Amino acid sequence: MISPEQVQTMIQEKLSNAKVKVAGDGQHFEAIIVSPDFAGKSRVKQHQIVYAALQAELASETIHALSLKTYTPEAWQAASSAPLK
């Protein structure tokens, strides 16, 4: 099993300027990622960037399911009044 904190760290290592929040039960995870690296990229491309950070864990099914919500900082500000920590 892998912890939400480990998943969060792996994403942050790939997207160094990202704000990341991950919740999950060891196999099923939900992640919110806010990164300036997403600017100008489609939602699909944004998700592919995150999947690349977790490629080994997804391939081995250490992570069985992953739900993503990705935002640029501007999109996050427009969508939410709360800062992501």
Short account of what is shown:
The chain is α+β, with helices and mostly antiparallel strands. 40% of the residues lie in helices and 24% in strands. The chain has a 3-stranded mixed β-sheet.
Please provide a written account of the structure.
This protein is of the alpha+beta class. It has a single domain, classed as BolA-like (GMP Synthetase, Chain A, domain 3). The chain has helices at residues 4-14, 43-53, 55-59, 73-79; strands at residues 19-24, 28-34, 65-71. A 3-stranded mixed sheet has the order 1-2-3. A hairpin with a 3-residue loop joins strand 1 and strand 2 (28-34). Helix 1 crosses helix 2 (43-53). The longest helix is centred in the first third of the chain and has 11 residues, at 4-14. It is globular. The relative contact order is 0.22. The mean pLDDT is 93.
Shape estimate: globular
**What is the CA-based Rg, rounded?**
12 Å
Mean pLDDT figure: 93
CATH fold descriptor: GMP Synthetase, Chain A, domain 3
Largest sheet: 3 strands, mixed
| Strand portion | 15-25%
Number of helices: 4
What is the CATH homologous superfamily assignment? BolA-like
Strand order of the largest sheet: 1-2-3
Could you estimate the helical fraction of the residues in percent? 40-55%
Number of domains: 1
Distance between the termini: 24 Å
Give me some keywords for this one:
GMP Synthetase, Chain A, domain 3; 4 helices; 85 residues; alpha+beta
Topology at a glance:
Layout: H1 4-14, E1 19-24, E2 28-34, H2 43-53, H3 55-59, E3 65-71, H4 73-79
Parallel strand pairs: 2-3
Antiparallel strand pairs: 1-2
